[in-house]
Each structure stands twice: as C-alpha cells, then as structure tokens.
Amino acid sequence: MRITIVQGPFFPIPPLLGGAVEKAWHSLGSEFGRRGHAVTHISRHYGGLPSDEIVGRVRHLRLRGYDAPKSKILWRLLDLRYALRVLPALPDADILVTNSIWLPAMVRSPRYGVLYMHMGRYPKRQTRLLYHHAARLQTVSNAVSGAIIAQDAKSAAKVRVIPYPLPHAVEVIDVPRSWDDRERCILFVGRVHPEKGLGLLLAAFQLLAHSGMHDWRLVIVGPWEARLGGGGRGFYEALRRNSHEVADKVDWIGPIFDSHALSMYYKRATLFVYPSLAERGESFGLAPLEAMACGCPALVSALDCFKDFVQDGRSGFIFDHRSPTPAQALALRLKEILANKQELVSIAVRAYEVAGTFALPKVADLYIQDFVRLLDDNSYSLGSRSSQLA
Fold first, then answer.
1. How far, in Å, CA of 333 to CA of 211, rounded?
2. Which residues of 319-342 are buried (b: 16+ CB within 10 A; e: fewer)?
3. How far is CA 386 from CA 4, 76, 381, 383, in A?
4. Are 9 and 65 in contact (CB under 8 A)?
5. In terms of domains, do 311 and 199 share one?
6. Could you give the CA distance from residue 170 to residue 376 in angstroms, rounded to a whole number?
7. Is the residue at 257 inside a domain?
8. Are residues 216 and 72 in the same domain?
9. pLDDT in tens, 278-324
10. Type and span of the H or E element at 45
11. Any domain includes 170
12. How far are the Cα atoms of 28, 34, 58, 365 from residue 31, in angstroms, in the given order?
C-alpha cells in the first residue's frame, strides 16, 4: 500500500518535542515501512531536520510549522494555514491518515487515498460538518468512540477503535525481581498543565507527608512551556509555591523525549500516578501504559478512557477525581496502595501483561487490516491494489 501520514503543525517527526499522537504514528509509520508499504510522513519542519529525507523505508516531508499557542482560536488558525501548505505536497496514495483539523475538509480527490481521520481527542461536533466524507473515523478508546457516535449517530458505521501502540518494544522483564531495584518514588510523566491534575497530586502528596509517610519522593517529568503543551510559567511557578511544604521531596525533571531515558524513570518508580481531570480532553493515556510496560503499576483518575486497560485492583488502580474532596481521596488511595507491597507487585505483574497486548506489531496489524478493509470497500484509490496487497 501507499500510505500517507500527515501530522499537525506543532510537533515534528521524529517526536523530538514529544506528543503522544506523534510518538504513536512515528512508530506506526516506521513499522508499516518495515513491512514493505510505501510510507510518506508529513510533519512540521524543526531545527536541523531535512525538509525531505528517507529514513529506513519511510519518506519524511517536513513543512514550515509553528510553536503551539495558548489561544485555541489561534491554534485553529495556524492549523488552517498549515493545512493549506500541506495540500499541494500530498503524494498520490491509497490511504491518507491525518489528525489535522482542517486538512480533511480540503481533501476531495481520490488520488490522495481513502481518507482515514485519526481523532486523538474528544470530539467537538466536527464530524458532521468537516469529516462527513471520510471513509474512517478512527479513535483510540471506547470512551471517545461513544462520544463521536453520540454527537453524530450517522457516523456510527465509520467509527473504529484501534489503540495507540507502545512506541518502543516491550522489554522482557522479571517484574517481581525488578521490584528490588525500585525506589520509594511516586512518578508523574506528562504535560505540566492544569488539566493533568498536578495541583491535585501535589496537594495529595502534602497530605501523605503530613500523615507520616516522609520517606517518599514525588518525581514530575514533563514540560511546563506553553509551546510544548504545558500550562505556562505562571502555572508552573504557582504549583511550586503551593507545594513549598514538600519542596525538598519533589523533583521537577522537565521534559524527557528520549524513550530509553524515560523508561529508566518508569523502571525506578514504585507507582505511576496520572490524575488527569480532562473530562473532554483525555482520549487514551499513553504514559500510564508506558509505565505498565516497564512493570510500574499506574494509579489513574476515573476517566472512562483509562478503563480500556486499567482495571481497579487488577491491572492498576483508580481513584475518584470527582469526589467533593479529591485531594483527600487521592491521598487516601496513595496511602492504601503504598502500604501493601505484596499487592503492588501482584498488580504490577498483571499491568505488565496487559501492556504487552499493546505492543507495536500487534497494534500495527490492526491498522493494516483496517486499511485493507477500507480499500476493499472503496474502488477509487489509485494503482493496482490487488498486486500491492498481495
């Protein structure tokens, strides 16, 4: 197959600035190329990356993009400008995958391939207006799938749930034995942004320290800069001021975009905590899954999107972020979990097993199968598909 993948205007490929969507599709594009498909990956030009290069079996085209603005209106306008830049650069293809807001509305010619709309965030009623002609509305969790159908019932037949893959190979880990090397460390990895629940986590950690658990550390990995999706300097400084009582127990690491370096944090931590409050923003939660793949169990908020891979008390832990006193609810859950090492290890084993089902080759199979199904259903893609798919 000839597969074109178009990312948005704010993050480059390879994912030098992070981004769960970019990490996932970079891995998938490379895997598709490894399997012999002709892949073109279009993304933002950044730094010294070439505008046009072939890496492995993937051709990368990089066009002028932008740093992500804080304004949602400006964010959409910049996506529109970028889409206008992408349109004339599109190659002939069989499948066109994109997460751009505006590009799908502009693509009307079958020469660019069957339109495969990747919806990596909660829908905002755009499917009926902008994506009604797409062959597929693909998302990564049952929670988002349900929201798409609730907003546009006519699109139900087009909706397909295929998760993000782990962006790196799942290592063979003896989880119980690895526990001997773990530190008394609670880990968060993600954007330092209000919707990620960092204020709640820091408040709960202070309560934990006040309860007598003084020998635990909280490690926070992720960017606070607005251009990288963070909440900005003001939010970051407010978090540090409000948590001054435990300042000596909190490590602010900053962003880490290298998968190997990041895995070292997952392998050292006893518990990963992801207290997201993004009821209409969170779609999957790749970071908790990455932690699970390193044998580190995850404690997440009660958002529906996490339920596809976190079962409370079996493959992870869930706390009620909608509680009238959420900081107290999180602190109590942390204290219960950290006091029971035997249960932690048992759940870590099951978490590792669940994460293995999201390995890149397995998830890539699901995408390829879906592409083939769409091509069988659509007669307008270019070239001799029968020979290409043989």
1. 13
2. bebeeeebbebbbbbbeebbeeee
3. 19, 39, 11, 9
4. yes
5. yes
6. 32
7. yes
8. no
9. 888 788 889 999 999 999 999 999 999 999 999 999 999 999 999 99
10. strand 38-45
11. no
12. 5, 5, 9, 10
How much is the mean pLDDT over the chain? Answer: 92
Q: Where is 176: in which H helix or E strand?
A: helix 175-178
Per DSSP, what are the bridge partners of residue 116? 97, 136
Neighbour-count burial of 302, counting CB atoms closer than 10 A to its CB (0-12 exposed, 13-18 middle, 19+ buried): middle
User: What is the pLDDT, as a whole number, of residue 386?
Assistant: 37
The Cβ of residue 173 has, within 10 Å, a number of other Cβ atoms equal to 15
Q: What is the CA radius of gyration of the chain?
A: 21
- 48-91 confidence digits (pLDDT tens): 999 999 999 999 999 999 998 988 899 999 999 999 999 999 99
Domain extent at residue 51: 2-165+359-388
CA 170 to chain centre: 17
Question: Measured between alpha carbons, how far is 58 from 279 in angstroms, rounded to an integer?
Answer: 36
- Tokens coding 282: 């969170």
Instruction: Give the number of other Cβ atoms within 10 Å of residue 90's Cβ.
Output: 21
Same domain (yes/no): 254, 211: yes
233 and 127 together in one domain? no
pLDDT digits (tens, 9 = 90+) for 132-185: 899 999 999 999 999 999 999 999 999 999 999 998 888 889 999 988 889 999
- Could you tell me the two tokens for 134? 């797409």
> Looking at this protein, which amino acid is placed at residue 124?
K
The pTM for the full model equals 0.90
d(CA 9, CA 27): 18
Helix (H, G, I), strand (E, B) or coil at 370: helix
Q: Percent of the chain at pLDDT above 90?
A: 83
Query: How much of the chain, in percent, has pLDDT values that exceed 70?
Result: 97
CB atoms closer than 10 angstroms to residue 309 = 22
Question: Above 60 in pLDDT, residue 36?
Answer: yes
242 shares its domain with 348? yes
**Cα(173)–Cα(267) distance, rounded to whole angstroms?**
10
Which CATH number is 316's domain given?
A: 3.40.50.2000
Q: Are residues 222 and 136 in the same domain?
A: no
